[in-house]
Amino acid sequence: MFDQSISTLAAQLRNKDISSVELTRYFLDRITKLDPQLNSYITLSEEVALKQAANADTQIQNGAASLLTGIPIAHKDLFCTAGTLTTCGSKMLNNFIPPYESTVTSRLQDAGAVMLGKTNMDEFAMGSSNENSHYGAVKNPWNQDTVPGGSSGGSAAAVAAGLAIAATGTDTGGSIRQPASFCGITGLKPTYGRVSRFGMIAYASSLDQAGPMAKSAEDCAHLMQAMAGFDDKDSTSSETANDDYLSNLNTPLTGLKIGLPKEYFGEGLDTGVADVIMTAVKEFEKLGAEVKEISLPNLNLSIPSYYVIAPSEASSNLSRFDGVRFGHRCEAPKDLLDMYMRSRAEGFGQEVQKRIMVGTYALSEGYYDAYYLKAQKIRRLIKNDFTNALKQVDVIMGPVAPTTAFGLGSKTNDPVAMYLEDIYTLSVNLAGIPAMSIPAGFSNQMPVGLQIMGNYFAEAKLLNVAHQYQQNTDWHRQTPAMAKGA
Amino acid sequence: MSIDKQDVQKIAHLARLALTEADAEQYQQSLSSVLSLVEQMQSVDTDGIDPLSNPLEMTQRLREDLVTEENRRDDFLANAPQTEAGLFLVPKVID
To answer: Catalysed reaction per UniProt (chain A) (predicted)?
Structure first.
């Protein structure tokens, strides 16, 4: 039952084969039994879940149910959930009970989805391995000696292990796509501004974007139907009309033009990963697509540009954690300055402190032009690369990450090596375009994700392309052995 | 690009982070390696390129200047480390 699609479960709920309360208890039991191996949840919200499930059952009884009514999902612990602990993976927020609800979680709740709990993540979404969580590392369900990816590693591991039907994630530099790739699930980072950022604890505001993580593109489309769309509580929310993410899923791919950027297949790409990606591309050719080599010449510059822009915005966003209104406060501060300095030093982990300092430096007097402004100019070059390429092709494909999931602890001593892992995902956030990761095969028994990138607001197109592939392959139906242990 | 321990302490002060000597030594190395990484940008010619701050190049949306929020003082004070008489309490600022 843990590996069923949303539409199958919705049909079972409507036919009264099962109630939402039963389904929710089933998942809560699975989490209690299996999650000690993974640590994918920070908080289990059993009481809220059972109450929401009971409401869902009433709605189903009354014939007022949507497709998500009664479906148990999980939320990354970065979305504020009213009355439920929201830590953002940080000691700073280890006692923070939000007084309000994020737009994403509120829309999913309104659509009838049941919240099982809040998933583990890299502290303040800063990381690519989920090892930067104050609440402990998350293990990859396919091999518990490896990382699940980050920063939405808890969401990815929970979905892969069947500890939630789907989950929310956020993606500032790859944080939905890379863990989706490492854990063998489907994840979508929408266009910047497509999904509201209201109630999402901010990392880098010009890059942050929330999206769905699930077993399949079809399930992601169901979540997007509820999540996406204009929100006047988010000042950068797009007023562009929402698409119907379900109606185009079955459009054939005949004549689809796929671009393969040569920079995505160069030095550093693991050969096992490259083989999987090329096999997937051939599958698309069989489905009628045409493949063309393209170039995104400034790809390498996405790393330095991102590691100036994201820390700069983070240093500004995270200044709100001052020990005054919420969050950690140090013991016995001797004055206001002492309180700020010790509360922040105690509340933030090392990676967060490091990024705050990088950003503070880049924005400090005399350095702004050389760092922040320069990075924003390069950001435009990267955006131009994508807009030029997307004049020639409909979608761009390539790997999500250079390798499969790496070993726990294997990159923690060399953070720059960890940053280089994000080479194929960062540029998408800088440009603001949408992109997906879908399971495309295995290399050394570990999942490999194929990245599909598209034009601004082309989420429906990406979901269509991914769904057609998933109708003809079964990589997205593979389940790790530990998930069957219950 | 490398920075010394004094630079680290100066940045940490601007960022309001209390660092021990040992922390400063460690951050000196890790900050230097990040700054070397971002140094690559300086070799790129960006003359005449406009900086891009919002990927959709949106301008700030304005709204009517109306009160839309209700008073939820108690809810917001509930998360504060220390409060008194409906106010956030901080260490004494003025003698």
So the answer is: L-glutamyl-tRNA(Gln) + L-glutamine + ATP + H2O = L-glutaminyl-tRNA(Gln) + L-glutamate + ADP + phosphate + H(+)
Q: Which residues of A are catalytic?
A: 76, 151, 175
DSSP state of A153: H
- Tokens representing residue A26 in the block: 């089933």
Q: What's A244's domain CATH number?
A: 3.90.1300.10
Q: How far apart are CA A297 and CA A479, in angstroms?
A: 37
* DSSP H helical ranges for A17-78: 20-38, 46-61
pLDDT in tens, chain A (486 residues): 899 999 999 999 999 999 999 999 999 999 999 999 999 999 999 999 999 999 999 999 999 999 999 999 999 999 999 999 999 999 999 999 999 999 999 999 999 999 999 999 999 999 999 999 999 999 999 999 999 999 999 999 999 999 999 999 999 999 999 999 999 999 999 999 999 999 999 999 999 999 999 999 999 999 999 999 999 999 999 999 999 999 999 999 999 999 999 999 998 999 999 999 999 999 999 999 999 999 999 999 999 999 999 999 999 999 999 999 999 999 999 999 999 999 999 999 999 999 999 999 999 989 999 999 999 999 999 999 999 999 999 999 999 999 999 999 998 877 788 888 899 999 999 999 999 999 999 999 999 999 999 999 999 999 999 999 999 999 999 999 999 985
The answer to whether position A442 is within a domain reads yes
pTM over 0.80: yes
Whether the CB of B24 is below 8 Å from some CB of chain A: the reply is no
Q: Which residue(s) pair with A212 in the sheet?
A: A168
List chain B residues with CB under 8 Å of A304: 37-41
Give the ipTM. 0.96
Distance CA A392, CA A48 (A): 49
Burial of B57 (0-12, 13-18, 19+ CB in 10 A): exposed
Domain-embedded: residue A329: no
**Interchain contact, A301 vs B40, CB within 8 Å:** yes
Domain count, chain A: 1
Q: Is B58 on the interface with A (CB under 8 A)?
A: yes
Q: Hey, are the CB atoms on A357 and B41 less than 8 Å from each other?
A: no
A11, HSE (Cβ side, Cα atoms, 13 Å): 5
Class of B5-42 in CATH:
mainly alpha
Q: CB distance from B39 to chain A under 8 Å?
A: yes
Residues from chain B contacting residue A320 (CB–CB below 8 Å): none
Chain B CB contacts of A238 under 8 Å are 56, 58
Question: Among all residues of chain A, which has the CA nearest to that of B55?
Answer: A432
Q: Of A472, A390, A381, A486, nearest to A434 (Cα)?
A: A390
Q: Is B81 on the interface with A (CB under 8 A)?
A: yes
